[in-house]
Amino acid sequence: MTRFFIPTEQISANTVILKGTDRHHLLNVMRRDIGSKITVLDGKGAEYVAVIKEIGPDSVVGEIVATVARAAEPRLKIRLAQSLPKADKFELLLQKNTEIGVGIFQPVLTERSTIKLDPGAAQKKEERWRKIIQEAAEQSGRQVIPQLEPVRNWPEVLAALPNGLCLIPWEGEQEASLKKILANTPEFPELVTILIGPEGGFSQAEVNQARERGAIPVTLGPRILRTETAGLVVATALLYHYGDLG
Question: Which residues are CB-neighbours of 110 under 8 A, at least 6 positions away?
């Protein structure tokens, strides 16, 4: 069934209203008409089935016929602080990590980042990134749209590290495996932050700074993973370990 995340102000009583690109997609791409059923979500966990009742020049009006009760969101909240990679790798990274269940994305500029963004470019990028996240959430059956934080530099990210388990995969770590760290974390963490470096990896100074803030360096095995792969691997392992994949 066609799924749409819409603002809460477009949901009232038993009525939903689709506007703009949602209206266009519904009518011109999905070819839906009066009487068709759609799934509407408010992006905060509420999910409804609605039937199209009215098609206007600027909006589509649907009547809510059912409230959907299901648990599609992972119990574990994952915050992925990802150094910005080259080209469009970050877009693919957002899409795939949204699909598996990552809840918060924090774009980071680190010492070895090759991407430099002025405020105007960052704003345009963030608009596109939000669109990619929402589309991935719709297609994968998420009930909540993952949160996208503004682009921050490394000191800002470390200064704002939330409480909870924080992992920093690093090729320089030889002893502490992800499996070992999770086995020695008996309590269920409310939040896990993953710090992922750029193509050139974190510098020793950055790893030391993260460790001082409570981050735990971990090895992901004998193979070097690309920056766009590492976060996805760690997030998947976390979700499996804590029972959210199955």
Answer: 83, 153, 154, 197, 198, 202, 203, 206
At position 101, the amino acid (one-letter code) is G
Is residue 54 within a helix (H) or strand (E), and if so which, with residue range? strand 47-55
pLDDT in tens, 61-107: 999 999 998 888 999 999 999 999 987 899 999 999 999 999 999 99
| Helix residue spans in the chain (DSSP H) | 20-24, 89-100, 119-140, 154-159, 178-183, 204-212, 227-241
Length of the chain: 246
User: What's the start-to-end Cα distance of the chain, in Å?
Assistant: 23
Q: How many angstroms separate the CA atoms of 207 and 184, rounded?
A: 21
pTM of the model: 0.89
Rg, the chain, Cα only: 20
Residues 6+ apart with CB under 8 A from 210: 158, 166, 168, 195, 202, 217
Q: Which H helix or E strand runs over 174?
A: none
**Domains and their CATH numbers in the chain:** 3-67 (2.40.240.20), 77-241 (3.40.1280.10)
